[in-house]
Amino acid sequence: MTAVAEAAELVGAGVDRVDGPAKVTGAAQYPADFGFDNLAHAVLVQSTVAAGRIRRMDTAAAEAAPGVLAVITHRNAPRLARAPGGLGPGPPAPLQDDRVLHHGQHIAVVVAQTLEQATAAARLVETDYETSEPLLDLDDPRAERVENASGRDVSRGDVAAGLAAAEVVVAATYTTPTQTNNPLGLFATLAYWDGDALTVHDSTQGPAFVQTALAVTFGLPETSVRVLAPFVGGAFGAGLRTWPHVVLAALAARTVSRPVKLVLSRAQMFTSVGYRPRTVQPVKLGAGRTGELIAIDHEGIEPAALEDDFAESLTRAAAVLYRCPNVSGRTRQVRLNVACPTWMRGPGEAPGVFALECALDELACELGMDPIELRLRNYAEVHPQTGRPWSSKALRACYEQGAERFGWARRAPRPRSMRSGRLLVGYGMASAYYGYVQAPCQARASLGLDGVAVVRSAATDIGPGTYTVMTQVAADALGLPLERVRFQLGDSTMPPAPLQGGSGLTAALGSAVDAACRQLRQAFTELAAPGPVTAETYAAILARHGLAELSADGASARRRDTDAEPGIFAAKFAEVQVDPDLGLVRVTRFVAAVDGGRILNPKTAASQIIGGTAGGIGMALLEQTVTDPGTGRIANATFGDYLVAVNADIPDIDVLFVGEPDPINLIGVKGIGEVAIVGVAPAIANAVYHATGRRIRSLPITAEQLL
Ligand code: MOS
């Protein structure tokens, strides 16, 4: 293999996951898989009330139980600083006082020799509370309301005047339930100390962010904290913040001077690693008789935790998806006695676009217009809020090619007019948008005498295929076959990378990896000169110069030589069959046409869209976290009761990628992780309306609602 050998077309090829064999053979080590001879185990004790104070805690029985090494409560925990979070400030530090802010708050951690001993002893901790009336209702007048906490409220024109001038107005309120990020991998933290140096294995979407958070929390220099996450068993946004249990695992390890492992139970996942907050969304659309939008008024209301600054915008897409002169999109958080929420796949847009795109469907019905025609009539050729051009936008092609693939032309417009035997058939569609963020990123590429390039960055791969596509990008830039490239991630000592979130990592990391590998190739070219580089391998060049290795660094940032607006777009098409007697809904076909810019690997990219569509089907028909209204206790915190879509719920999903490489970053990609779920639920809800004539505005769409 010569240094610049003809590389087969590596980028854009549907290569298999390079980490697939390690995963299926069990060689891949997830945070809970690491072990030590003297490993101790930590189990959390959680509050059984939602609001009040801990009056008395009796830990004597737990402390005396077999194998117990420590019981840590607010009475003996050290003072800890509140840390920054991932994309925002972190949750409050645990065990700092006697106050209870939500049901399921961590109030003690029990450390023992074995997991069984810790579990048994945790049950022996007795707690008396002085309870107060919890704030659990969005309408509770006592609750603090926070306007525009995300800073992403939008407005243009005069919405009231626009609605008054409109010939047709539709107005409705849409609601979505709490949904809990439920990766199969239970979140786990394994922590150990060597003097003042802390090492942590964690289920995270950003090792460097956990590193910073733990350094601040424990008052350590960042260089004293190392965080590892080479494999994470899914996260969907749950790994974007540094959670109290991570801090408690590290605190427990310091307290007992041994490595400590803390694995959340499935039930604890519902209160410990965030969730998508429930939403209430009043929407008003005003239009002319021929369908041109005159006003969009979109309001979003959702809960926030009492002492937390997590805030997403539910209403951003209202200002972006359509050309419309008068728009107002406002999101308000209401502080309640609830656990800290987090970003969950398609944060903001997944519920927000549900409301907006169902309202568009209602408007199309009101106008007697085809839903795609209505969207095309209001197509935003430029960013409608800023007036600047899009960096690239192929939404029109998404509508056209998606409709073609789906067979939209066969749709009979009238509701309840299509059948398959005794089942009602409905076709529905929705637009999708996600505004991705590309943060600065670094990578380092090295190549030694074995001729193998090793490329590193402190990113994570929670499942989308980052190991694989970065191996492709590196191999392509170096002119090496895939087998000669090893991409490594998941270690905070590597060059810093952003969180794997906001659909931004592939653009950021791919650009940095590409830059590092091109730098390395350049370094070899300069070293080899004036000899003909194509005749010599990298290893031979090193040997000839008596060198063991060459390395190069690469960095990326959002391109600044353009004022173009980035945006990820898609059109989603659903076919449902509804049993008219039982109210059961099945999604029987689904087409997702996605403008994701350049697609680095069509196989892993299609898997992303399929996974997001499965999540969207769950959102539409199944998923809801139920909170007991009197106590704030989550009533369905098991996989038996919290229903997620499984294979039998998912039809064949047809994924089309349309669009062009996006010039906003050097490798031409957008991000597709979030847009995968956005638009799925409204496409299904609109199909259910088309099948049944019943407009269900509250997710999930259940048999009870349809009967
Ligand atoms: Mo995604 S919610 O940014 O992991």
Overview in brief:
By secondary structure, this protein is α+β, with helices and mostly antiparallel strands. The chain has 16 helices and 25 strands.
The count of helical stretches stands at 16
| Low-confidence residue ranges | 1-7
Distance between termini? 67 Å
Task: Spell out which ligands are present.
Answer: dioxothiomolybdenum(VI) ion
Mean pLDDT: 95
Principal-axis shape equals: globular
Got a strand count?
25
Strand content: 15-25%
How big is the Rg?
A: 26 Å
Main β-sheet description = 7 strands, mixed
Strand order of the largest sheet: 3-5-1-13-10-11-12
Helices and strands, with pairings:
Layout lengths: L19 H6 L14 E7 L5 E7 L1 H5 L3 E6 L25 E2 L5 E7 L2 H8 L3 E6 L13 E3 L6 E3 L2 H7 L2 E9 L11 E7 L2 E6 L4 H12 L6 E4 L15 H13 L3 E4 L2 H7 L6 E9 L5 E13 L20 E11 L12 H19 L3 H7 L17 H12 L12 E2 L2 E12 L6 E8 L4 E4 L9 H13 L6 E4 L16 H24 L9 H7 L4 E8 L11 E11 L6 E11 L6 H20 L31 E6 L21 H13 L10 H4 L1
Parallel strand pairs: 1-13, 11-12, 15-16, 20-21, 24-25
Antiparallel strand pairs: 1-5, 2-4, 2-6, 3-5, 7-16, 8-16, 9-14, 10-11, 10-13, 14-15, 17-18, 18-23, 19-20, 19-22, 23-24
Bound molecules: dioxothiomolybdenum(VI) ion (MOS).
List keywords for this structure.
707 residues; 16 helices; binds dioxothiomolybdenum(VI) ion; 7-stranded mixed beta sheet
